[in-house]
Specification:
By secondary structure, the chain is mainly beta. The protein has one domain: hypothetical protein yedk fold, CATH 3.90.1680. The protein is 12% helix and 36% strand. The protein is built from 2 helices and 8 strands. β3 and β4 form a beta hairpin. The chain is globular and about 35 Å long. The mean pLDDT is 84.
Length: 107
């Protein structure tokens, strides 16, 4: 049986995520160069996004140890003005470079 993987965190008040979010040692940065959001109602098609002035950017993330080693998930938020018209549900939290240099603390 295939294990279901969770890649994004939408409900920050969920008991499953609360302990990880409260523990600074379980917070992390998830590097990316591009990310995709599904095109609603268009099968497997996706919209692709990047941060123009950053070849490598970072999502706010959390991690935990599993039976298969460390696993990671990134936090989501309301979509910004670029993403919202295409994917109104949510988007990953993109960490500002200055915040990433401060240790990636989520504020």
């Amino acid at each position: 049986m295939l294990e279901k993987r969770v890649t994004n965190v939408r409900n920050l008040s969920s008991p499953f995520w609360k302990s990880m979010l409260a523990n600074p040692l379980q917070r992390c940065l998830v590097p990316f160069s591009t990310f995709a959001e599904p095109k609603i109602g268009e099968g497997r098609d996706e919209w692709w996004f990047n941060v123009i002035d950053q070849p490598i950017a970072a999502f706010a993330g959390i991690w935990r140890q599993s039976d298969h080693g460390p696993v990671y998930a990134f936090l989501t938020c309301e979509p910004n003005a670029l993403v919202a018209p295409l994917h109104p549900k949510a988007m990953p939290v993109i960490v500002e470079p200055a915040d990433a240099r401060m240790g990636g603390q989520i504020r």
